[in-house]
Amino acid sequence: MATRKSNGDAAAGPLSTQRIVQAALEEVAADGLAALSMRKVGQRLGREAMSLYHHFPSKQHLLDAMVDHALASVEEPPADLTPMERLLHSVHSYRRMAHRFPALYPLVAVHRLNTPTGVRFIESILALIQAVVPDPELSARYFRAIGYYLTGAGLDETSGYAKGPSAAEPASDDFVVRECPRLVGVAQYFQPAQWDATFAIGVDALMSAMERDAARVGRVNLQKG
User: pTM of the entire structure?
Assistant: First the structure.
């Protein structure tokens, strides 16, 4: 868990949007997204909350900037890779971003991405997909399909069902062993150490489908030509 900086140490230096965003990210990592407030960010920086409003008109504007910061950390693929390799690089980079900001990711997952950073990010991913599947309709559908998969994987791995809310008393180990033999048999493959292999199965299926569709569209275009 992140530690809270002392007000004296944090107050050094002038305020900037970057410092405020970083402090807010540290606050979310320490106490969770729901507990974030301008007052707490100000305390972390050794400043009054009102001083933050000179940089962000509202908490929502700060949240938008935090999402932009997370998106900006998704590494751009090297130019010397093939189109499919570049797309795969970005898919894995996005997943790493979710793990880099696990407490923030539930917001990233549902954010509208309507900021300049957000729409540029969407444009960049569309460009990668269209380099593999140029067809506008198919590229749009694969953009959505890849988004579905990445969002689900990111949410499950950073704040999935094992951490989800429930008022029920968990079923006892004895009950699970007696009533759910299939679950017992596969449980080891649900562990975090298995996530990379599981993620790869879904990504491979998506990429294989894209390659098949790209080849099919290419054949159709040749026939039309």
Answer: 0.90
